[in-house]
Design a protein that fits this description.
- By secondary structure, the chain is of the alpha/beta class.
- The protein folds into two domains: 382 residues, TIM Barrel; 122 residues, Malate synthase, domain III (Malate Synthase G, Chain: A, Domain 4).
- It is built from 18 helices and 15 strands.
- The strands form four sheets. It has an eight-stranded parallel β-sheet with strand order 6-3-2-13-12-11-10-9. A three-stranded antiparallel β-sheet has the order 1-7-8.
- Helix 4 runs parallel beside helix 5.
- It is globular.
- The model has no long low-confidence stretch (mean pLDDT 97).
């Protein structure tokens, strides 16, 4: 057999990484180039359609189920049955693909690990390439890690106790600047999917599993159709049976909430389920209805719990839709990070996590997410209590649920208002998260919560919305650009005092402060914070 031809992709402005040749092989890059050649133009069209949809929402301040797809919603169809490795998903742990997290997540006792190249990972070249290498090493059982600070060693446990991996590539809006085709960056989603699929599809089949994916930031059923066509192409390319790929779609945009059935239909033979992702969902509501007036103004993010009427409508519709079509319904994130010092903080938080997971299991979800291994047993107990020995509860059809189009956007049904403390919190969390992201960290523990990019998106969007709407806080202060700048300056000074001059200078604090204010105050609202942030990350 002749050696593969050199790839038409160029690696640009990237320092060589250890063992990168095991990931960036000519054959793997040739596959990514084929994905780019065949699908990037459609991806570009779909990003343009997003702009058109947003302009329509700005004009009408409403959304509805699509009349042109009524037949699909009325039809009698089901998605493909779940493969054995994805049939029981009662607890899923999420996190980036660094070496330590890879081992801890696989060992965590969770049924599934969401191996994240998206919101929990800052897309540095090192994270993109070495994250792929860590997964290959894990499947080959040659992964270990010794923490240079503590000296503690980590290794994989018994194979039959390891979590099933569901990998999440980047969203459609992000490029990978370091891989280019004729001078044009390849979409990050195609890089992440392509490298992972090419190297691991057969490996995973040999392990009794398969190439499974979480699809982020989907805004329409046409975007799901694009992914389905990519899966068909990819399976043919490497010669594995159609339907081996399975995808779970995050319903984390308000437009996708109106197209859940259509999204499952487009992915039918490759669909595994839908997931309810809270922070990005709220971010999407603010983004789309940001000029819709007072009735669309969200209160502090922590006041918007999953029991808010419009959030109940969203999650109950998701469960009903999934079970009607034979798909898994996966619940939201428990982001609490246990404290090693404060048992009382842990006690209160664990009770909240239990109540949240009890509610999800009671509502009919088949599983849910946690961010930390210590939360796995809590979530597991909630789902065990409802499921018993059953792998899921897809037989609970939730025919009692009826959601009208207006229910999903009835933001003013929530009895809460933005507060000055909410503004301070948004600035604090936004600044701290962006600073870490600019240093290459995408999953960051802030105030005992594991935060990812969605946190920063909702934080800066709320600042923008409150200023734009002229919100007056409970202390009489009006939300203005000047007030946001004052709070941000105070936060920067507080961080400097807290960590000391040397650590402050070594970090990216001023840069983070400036970027947060830019995306919070610019009249021209940036679609994604990660777009200007990526310019700084790789600039």
């Amino acid at each position: 057999m002749s050696a593969p031809a050199p790839s038409p992709l160029a690696i640009v402005d990237a320092e060589p990484l250890p063992r990168q040749d095991e990931v960036l092989t000519d054959a793997a890059l040739a596959f990514v180039a084929e994905l780019h050649r065949n699908f990037t133009a459609r991806r570009d069209e779909l990003l343009t359609r997003r702009q058109d949809r947003r302009a329509e929402i700005a004009r009408t301040s409403t959304l509805d189920f699509r009349p042109e797809t009524a037949e699909i919603r009325a039809g009698d169809w089901k998605v493909a049955p779940a493969p054995a490795a994805l049939n029981d998903r009662r607890v899923e742990i999420t996190g980036p693909t660094d070496r330590k997290m890879t081992i801890n997540a696989l060992n965590s006792g969770a049924k599934v690990w969401l191996a994240d190249f998206e919101d929990a990972s800052a897309p540095t070249w090192e994270n993109v390439v070495l994250g792929q290498l860590n997964l290959i090493d894990a499947y080959e059982r040659r992964i270990d890690f010794t923490d240079p600070r503590s000296g503690k060693s980590y290794a994989l446990k018994d194979a039959d106790r390891l979590a099933t991996v569901v990998m999440r590539p980047r969203g459609w809006h992000l490029e990978e600047r370091h891989l280019q085709f004729d001078g044009r960056p390849v979409p990050g989603a195609l890089v992440d999917f392509g490298l992972y699929f090419f190297h691991n599809a057969q490996r995973l089949i040999d392990l009794g599993k398969g190439p499974y994916f979480y699809l982020p930031k989907t805004e329409s059923y046409l975007e799901a159709r694009l992914w389905n066509d990519i899966f068909v192409f990819a399976q043919d390319y490497v010669g594995i049976p159609q339907g081996t790929v399975r995808a779970t779609v995050l319903i984390e945009t308000i437009t996708a909430a109106y197209e859940m059935e259509e999204i499952l239909f487009e992915l039918k033979d490759h669909a595994a389920g839908l997931n309810a992702g809270r922070w990005d969902y709220l971010f999407s509501i603010v983004k789309n209805f940001r000029d819709g007036g007072a009735k669309f103004v969200l209160p502090d993010r922590n006041a918007v719990t999953m029991t808010a009427p419009f959030m109940r409508a969203y999650t109950e519709l998701l469960v009903r839709t999934c079970h009607k079509r034979g798909a898994h319904a996966i619940g939201g994130m428990a982001a609490f990070i246990p404290s090693r010092r404060d048992a009382e903080v842990n006690k209160v938080a664990f009770e909240k996590v239990k109540a949240d997971k009890d509610r999800e299991a009671g509502d009919g979800f088949d599983g849910s997410w946690v961010a930390h291994p210590d939360l796995v047993p809590i979530a597991m107990a909630s789902f065990d209590a409802v499921l018993g020995d059953k792998p899921n509860q897809k037989d609970r059809l939730r025919e009692d649920v009826s959601v009208a189009p207006g229910d999903l956007i009835a933001i003013d049904s929530l009895d809460a208002k933005p507060t000055y403390g909410g503004l301070v919190s948004a600035v604090q969390v936004g600044t701290r998260y962006i600073e870490a992201w600019l240093r290459g960290l995408g999953a960051v523990a802030i105030f005992n919560l594991m935060e990812d990019a969605a946190t920063a998106e909702i934080s800066r969007s709320q600042i923008w919305q409150w200023i734009n709407a002229g919100v007056v806080f409970e202390n009489g202060e009006k939300a203005t650009a000047e007030l946001a700048r004052k709070v941000a300056a105070e936060e920067l000074a507080a961080i400097r005092a807290e960590i000391g001059e040397e650590a402050f200078a070594a970090g990216k604090w001023q840069q983070a402060h400036d970027l947060l204010l830019k995306v919070s105050l610019d009249a021209d609202y940036a679609d994604f914070l990660t777009l200007p942030a990526y310019d700084q990350l790789v600039g």
